[in-house]
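Hey all, sorry for the wall of text incoming. These are the two entities for the joint prediction.
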Amino acid sequence: MAGIYIHVPFCVSKCHYCDFFKTTNTEMLNGYLDALMEEFLHRKNSFDEKISTLYFGGGTPSLIPLPNYDAIFSRLKKLYQFIPDAEITIEANPDDLSSDYLMGLREIGFNRISIGIQSFHDDDLKRMGRRHTGQQAMQSVMAASDAGFNNISLDLIYGLSWSGTDKFVENLKMLKDLPFQHLSAYHLTIEQGTNFYKQQRKGKLREMDEDESLKQYLLLCEFAQNLGMEHYEVSNFCLPGYISRHNSSYWDGTPYIGFGPGSHSFYGSSRYWNQSDLLSYIGKKFDLVREQELLTSVNKFNELIMLGLRTKRGIDMSLVTTYFQNHFNAIMQKWVDNKFLYQEGSFLKCSEKGWFIVDAIIEDFFVDADL
Amino acid sequence: MKNIRNFCIIAHIDHGKSTLADRLLEYTNTVSGKDLQAQTLDSMDLERERGITIKSKAIQMQYEYQSEKYTLNLIDTPGHVDFAYEVSRSIAACEGALLIVDATQGIQAQTISNLYQAVDHDLTIIPILNKMDMPNAMPEEVEDQIIDLIGCDRSEIIHASGKTGMGIDKILETIVEIVPAPKGDPEAPLQGLIFDSVFNSFRGIIAYFKVVNGSIKKGDLVKFVNTGKEYYADEVGILGLDLVPRGELKTGDVGYIISGIKTSKEVKVGDTITHVKRPCAKAIAGFEEVKPMVFAGVYPIDTEDYEDLRASIEKLQLNDASLTFQPESSAALGFGFRCGFLGLLHMEIVQERLDREFDMDVITTVPNVPYIAYTKKGEKIEVHNPSGLPDPGLIDYVEEPYISAQIISHSDYIGNLMSLCLGKRGELVKQHYLTTDRVELVFDMPLAEIVFDFYDKLKSISKGYASFDYHTTGFRLSKLVKLDILLNGENVDALSALTHFDNAYGMGKRMCEKLKELIPRQQFDVAIQAAIGSKIISRETVKALRKDVTAKCYGGDISRKRKLLEKQKKGKKRMKQVGNVEVPQKAFLAVLKLD
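and here's what came out:
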């Protein structure tokens, strides 16, 4: 089993927090689509596993017209063997989701949609550079449901320093009445290269106070629990049976292949990625833009820790090789004693408070990559 | 002998001593222009970078004047207070001194103290105004200072420039004319004054000395009077650009001796060389055992490097006899050494040489001066580190070393300098105007006060202009306490310090504040406390880590995130575990600079 990820690097406007590879130059969309169709052929021999998930991420995949999706699907189905109940996801912006477009997506074969709500407060949306309103966000979710999507994921951002916890609680209340099965709630991170980063450097934006961050996080966890949702990854919650299978493949070692500029792949013992270079991509210089990282046993151990601890499933300790066993046990003991980690069967897991400092825990487990 | 001139140079750092010396060597064809590495005498990289001379050196020049051939021996002296004793021995080997003063800056503190030494040894002083090519030279004003200081005639002051070569011929002529030839007795028993030594990995220790009386031949059996050790003079010679072997050195000559000595400890600056068969009646006066005045723990950052560190320090000691060391251990830092240094600069130099020449990463702990503790039982105990201080209940009293500190500055800064020195327990002894706007201040001060963040403050409050010099004057009663730092209740021995009671509160508070900045947040609150005995005098808390999480970690984030955490992990490799608290290496260093 394997996944396919397709990166759509186009946006109508840039959100202030976003550091994904994207451009607002939508004139290049046709050239990109042409190259994408070509890249499918170019990499068809990369691997021959059955495809269980297909994911269009961005950027804004909802900018691609339906006929192009038709063409992409027919080519992919010719080249790869999809399992019957493959999960097929599109990331979408609320203001792109007309009923017709949504119906079209369903007809083509999309069975999961991830909608970038972020907030229902218009002032917060504006502050983040989103181009939709809270009203549009609500309507888009209803419309997706009406179009027959019964696996709807919503994105929410919290930890907005300028916006109080009260407003965050209101967002959660608004969510409660909407038809959705999956929630990705991200604490705002001010990433280098973003508009927010510039604002922060000019002193116009600050990080939220940690105690308030933690408070919001715990409110979020409680909210999801009350809805019967499972907290299955640091930032992800779902109703039983609605885990994101595609995203889970990133964390459990399932191979995946990425298409499009800036997309990543993982198979064999390597990670590969296409450079974030749209012009070369459109010029179809696929091998030129491809980079590879062969994972050493230390890298693999570190990834096992990093990805394992982020998920509810935890670290499969049977995969810790003898060589790292002593180191692993020593570090584990320390964090278990402090109740940031706990053991269940042969898995080592983060507690909810552990998740909120998981980077520090991961780092503690890490082995020097030069060894 | 009548055609020998032995002279040294007295100058402040940056006043152009080394450049001027280079010109003398060029002019006398001792070195040709193309061989002249900038500042030939400063051969250590460190010396060139810092523009200071650390080791004394000597070089011989041949000079013809009025159809007579003269031998000029230039004995270069170190230019820093830490090396005052070495300076005094170099001066003792000379009959004349060039007093070089920067025409743009005027006389500085160190110039004066070295000048006094030269005058004490009856050296003939040749005053020189250097950097006369500079547009901001102020010859009249600086001449006034010189005249005031040595009482010479204005016409005796030579105007020179090491950069352009101006005045070089005049300097050489004056040396020949007014510096007296050495006065020794060629027939008397041998007396050679050792003024420096260097280590050569093939030949062992090479001692530099001046033949004060008598003569020495290759192969002679000689004795070093103060150490009592005997050697054969395997080789003697003079100091050109390289060593030049000679069959014999006569009275007045400056040269070297190689006698198979392996460690620098056997060659003490100031010692007297004499013949075993016909020894001199007594040693040359002025010999002192050099005593370290600053002690600090030196620990390898990686505990496995302990043996390498020992080997490195031993090698350093081969050509730096003033460095002392003793094994020491710390609960926080593992095994290391208690090293003794002449002063702070010496300490810095040793640290840098360990890093550059031996590639050793070390942590140096808070330095302290030597104290003498007298117990109620009447014992006298020298205390070199905080753990060496006896239990307060057993102590009768403690003494600490005092210095006479001399500061020369523009008079604008008097107020600042006064409050700095008085705040450092100084007592004003003398205030003297050198000119209308240059003032000399002399304080009696505890040495401990300048060991800990004094230089930096002095420089900053005087905008870099104040110059400073000191010499130790003896021990005085002190109210000494041991200040401890506790992390979550656990004493961190490597952060303990000996300090005067009056400073303990301020220092404890600042150390806690500094550590709060440097200790990263951990999974629990970290209490940082300063304590005297069981009494807590200051406290800070590093709050527990509440949030450290990356929101997204999908396919495209994994490599980048892993590399970022791997890099951070590497950065934290240099953490020391103290109890359950992780302390970065830099915390141990940063407490040395508290402001």
